[in-house]
Amino acid sequence: MGIMDRITERFTSKGAPKQSVTLDEAAVLNALRVVQDPDLHKDIVTLGFVRNVKISVVAGGLEGQHEVSLEVNLTTPACPVKEQLKTQCEEALMALPGVGSTKVTMTASTRGALPLNTGSPVAASLGQVKNIIAVASGKGGVGKSTTAVNLAWSLAKSGSKVGLLDADIYGPSIPLMTHLKDSATAAGTLVDPPQVDGVKIMSVGMFGQGGKATIMRGPMAAAVIKQFLSQVAWGELDYLVIDYPPGTGDIQLTISQTAPVTGAVIVTTPQEVALIDVRKAISMFETLKVPVLGVVETMSHFICDGCDKKHFIFREGGGARVASEHGVAFLGEIPMDQGLVQASDEGKPYVSSHPKSPVARAFASVAGAVASQVSILHAENKNVLQHFSLDWVH
Amino acid sequence: MENIRVQDITQLDPKTLGILWTDGKKSALDVVLLRRKCPCAACIDEWSHEPRLKPEDVKDTVRPVKIESVGLYALTIHFNDGHRTGIYTFKYLRELAPLLN
What we know:
The complex is a heterodimer of chains A (394) and B (101).
Chain A: H1 3-12, H2 25-32, E1 36-37, E2 42-43, E3 50-57, E4 66-74, H3 82-94, E5 99-108, H4 123-126, E6 129-136, H5 144-157, E7 162-166, H6 174-177, E8 185-187, E9 190-192, E10 195-196, E11 199-203, H7 218-230, E12 237-243, H8 250-258, E13 263-268, H9 272-287, E14 292-297, E15 302-303, E16 310-311, H10 318-325, E17 330-333, H11 338-345, H12 350-353, H13 358-380, E18 389-391
Parallel strand pairs in A: 4-5, 6-12, 6-13, 7-11, 7-12, 13-14, 14-17
Antiparallel strand pairs in A: 1-2, 3-4, 8-9, 10-11, 15-16
Helix pairs in contact in A: 5-13, 7-8
Chain B: E1 6-13, E2 16-21, E3 26-30, H1 31-36, E4 64-70, E5 74-79, E6 87-89, H2 90-96
Antiparallel strand pairs in B: 1-2, 2-3, 4-5, 5-6
């Protein structure tokens, strides 16, 4: 049922004649109850999104016509249905008698988990980070870092405060992909991350000797990762995107045990041989009770410049299939694009260098889907104690 | 057990840990039993899964010093006998405890 049908139903089925409604805040809120958040499955008034309702007489306007202005405060600035919700609000308000014009402002305060216990070893570093998003994959070479960079940039473009941590200790690629030139500076006992386009970045690659391999056994690598999680001054962030190394080993375990990871995004290419490992990655996160936010499929297809036909080089629909097998969301598919590869190699995040391209739009849509899943998760997990520390009293 | 997690954690008395789960159920766990049932590789053989720790190795006077969460799936207990390597998954804790309600 469309929004207009719902409005009509509201005013006709209950037998309330239109003219008997007085235009006040209660009437405005009542009218807005037809606008549903499609992710949280509740109306925006019940969710407490509507703020600052003002009803005023417009100077020089028609007799008896008012302007209604209000603010709709969403759970994330990356909300994919922001415009749709705005239009629905305007339509619902205009249907009220006495309303001549509307001014609906869309704002957002990103919801996050409960604040960290001050006893937590990562409190100084991650205490003001609202959400930590793990970008992981079962196998390497599926475009995980490309996805992490473009996800971070898309979230930042929508107005969120974003950080990006490259935890791929053996193959850090974020410095190259973001053209990171600045190094980290000391800030007391912590390290201040440099910024590119407003995104705070920290990478294991910033500390090694360029071109030389990081040769470390598991426990050593885990200790390095722990330092990265506990000694970086991230400050206040809406989202911290962590680019995981591929696979299901020591580092993945250490990050998930040390940091309060909100959820994981699994990246895969469509073919079966990649999906086998995706199932393992999902199962690892399930064991660690890190919610899987969904699956992103990369290298989904190639559009040939000669015939505009989609070529499904690595077979079709694998990502969506594995997502539905595990009951998690399919967050979107990213087509193959030579420009994306080139931009990554040149250190230009594609969503900012080619914002109108199909690939950039696909990443923006993935970012919106991720932000929605995070909001849904917070709505479901209101009562979960995320990180705790209890001193025993003798 | 799929998505059941901890809603609150408290010390009920000098030797009992209380957990309120997100499904509303409550567990009361004896801390000495927790020490004897430690799932770490030093206490349970990694390959054979045979217990290596004998119940009599643990004194009745053992108590936690601190209890901390491990990621979103488990907790760890620092005991006053110096042992702190056990990672008790929420699943394991639910199995160990007689549910109170």
